[in-house]
Amino acid sequence: MSSAADTLRRRILPRALVALSRVNRPARLAARARRGLGRDGRVELFFAFEDPCSAVAALDLEERLARRSVTLVLRPVVRRGIAGDPAAQDKRRYAIGDARRLAARAGLELTRGEPVPPKTCDFLAAWAASAPQGAALRRFCTQALRELWFTAEDEEPVSEARFAPIWREQFGADPPRGVAGERALRRNERRMRLHWMYETPAAWVHGQWFFAHDRPLQIAQRLDELGWSAT
């Protein structure tokens, strides 16, 4: 890929997409209609279990949105980032530092110092993608992310045996098997791309998207503008 094309894809295009997403009037009208029907607001969080910044964003948003009439919709993904990105591994290492800094602001301490190897958490993503949205899924995801990033050490393996009890506690059954989870993951990933988002953690907030770990205050401001203020 040429240097100019690389710059377009990595820097200019993401900024342009964010700018284009900021069309507020239709979103405000839709939000008003939604409240008139007695419906809550929605924040869709596209996240990856193997991404420490996703862990910080999910825990932060779960707490922030608890004080608003807003539902946190969790959409786990596996395929993210730019295909064939030669800096992918370096970005995984940088994410550890970013997550550690952001977690400290929230009173959390990252216990891992190394990235989780790719595909290690695919089973968690498939489980969560196959589950219905709701409180049980939110509790499972937040507990699993806490266990993965704020309890486990680098040398501890990420295994189904470790996380299955968390699933059973929330859903009252064994974790799902089969291809349903994989299909649900592909739907989440397509939905993410349709919203012009390419990396996690990304939040879609009524027509506007944010990098959720870096912009929690802006997400809150967006919800305030649309009429879903904290109580």
Outline the structure in words:
With 231 residues, this protein is an alpha+beta fold. It has one domain: Glutaredoxin. It is 54% helix and 10% strand. The protein has helices at residues 3-20, 24-36, 52-65, 88-105, 122-130, 135-150, 160-171, 180-194, 216-225; strands at residues 41-47, 70-76, 202-205, 208-211. It has a four-stranded mixed beta sheet with strand order 2-1-3-4. Helix 3 (52-65) runs parallel beside helix 4 (88-105) and helix 5 crosses helix 8. The radius of gyration is 18 Å and the shape is globular.
CATH-derived topology? Glutaredoxin
Helix percent band:
40-55%
Distance between the termini: 50 Å
**How would the global form be characterised?**
globular
What is the CA-based Rg, rounded?
18 Å
User: How many structural domains are formed by the residues?
Assistant: 1
Total beta strand runs: 4
Helix count from the secondary structure assignment: 9
CATH homologous superfamily classification: Glutaredoxin
Strand order of the largest sheet: 2-1-3-4
| Average residue-wise pLDDT | 90
Q: Give the biggest sheet.
A: 4 strands, mixed
N-to-C order of helices and strands: HHEHEHHHHHEEH
Architecture blueprint of SSEs:
Layout: H1 3-20, H2 24-36, E1 41-47, H3 52-65, E2 70-76, H4 88-105, H5 122-130, H6 135-150, H7 160-171, H8 180-194, E3 202-205, E4 208-211, H9 216-225
Parallel strand pairs: 1-2
Antiparallel strand pairs: 1-3, 3-4
Helix pairs in contact: 3-4, 3-6, 5-8, 6-7
Summarize the structure.
With 231 residues, the protein is of the alpha+beta class. The protein has nine helices and four strands; from the N terminus they run H-H-E-H-E-H-H-H-H-H-E-E-H. The chain has a single domain, classed as 3-Layer(aba) Sandwich (Glutaredoxin).
